[in-house]
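User: Fold this; C-alpha cells only.

Assistant: Input:
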Amino acid sequence: MARTKICSKCGCEKLTQEFSLDKSKIDDLRSDCKECRKKITSIYRAGHRFQLRGKGSEYYGRNSEYIKATAKERYLLLRLAAIHAYGGECACCGEKRFEFLAIDHIKGGGRKDRARFKNNHYVWYRYLRDNEWPQGEYQILCHNCNASKGYYGACPHISYPEYFKQIPEYY
C-alpha cells in the first residue's frame, strides 16, 4: 500500500513520491509537496531576480577555477562514456585513443543535431545518455575517417572514391 502525506501548503493528500527529501525532518520529507514548492520558488525568484543574479556572479568569481575544472571533468567523463557505449574504437580503421575519436552520424544529420543542441557537445552527450545510447544511428570514427566521410563521401579504408583513381600520377 502506497504511503501518503498531507501538503502543508495546499492541504491535499498526496503520495510520498510527490514530496522532496529533507533529512532534517522526522519522516525525511519536506512538509510541502513538489508542486507547491515549485510555485513558491518561482514567485521568490521572480521577486529577487537581481539579488540572486548577483549572488551567482559573486560565487562564480570566488570559485571560477573550481567550476571550470569540474565542468571539464564532467564533460570528459560523459564523452568517454559515449565513446565506450558506441564501441570504443574507430569503426573503420580501429583507432582506440579517445583523443582521436568522434561520434559520427551514420546516415548524416550532424548539422541538424549541432543546430538542435546549439553546438553544445555536453548537452548532446547528455541527450544520448538519457536516451540510453541509441544504436544504429551513431558510430565511432577517428577524426581522419570522419573528415574523409564528410568531404569525400567515404573513408579510403573502406572504399576509395572513383575520382581519386582518375587523378594522373604526376599530381
